[in-house]
Amino acid sequence: MTWLLSAPAAAGAVFERHFCRGCTPPGPVTDVTCMRCGDGPLLAGALAVGDEAATAVVQSWLARTGWRMSGPVCPDCVGELRR
How far apart are CA 19 and CA 64, in angstroms? Predict the structure, then answer.
C-alpha cells in the first residue's frame, strides 16, 4: 500500500512510503480511491486533514503519477479505459 506523507521541511512537498501494519504513521488517515477499482494511496498526517493546501498537493501528486482527476481514476484503470 502506498502512503503519501508531507515532507516536514518542504512546504508543498509529498513523498511516498510503504509501511507494514505495525509501522503505520500516527495521526489522521484518509484515502484516495479510484472510482473503477477502489485502489489508491492512503494519506497521512497533514495531507489527511483535507484543507485547501493539502488538497492541492495531493492533486498535484495524483496528476504527476498518471491519475485522471475526473473520477478520480488510477493510472492502471486509465490504461484500461484507453483500450
Answer: 22
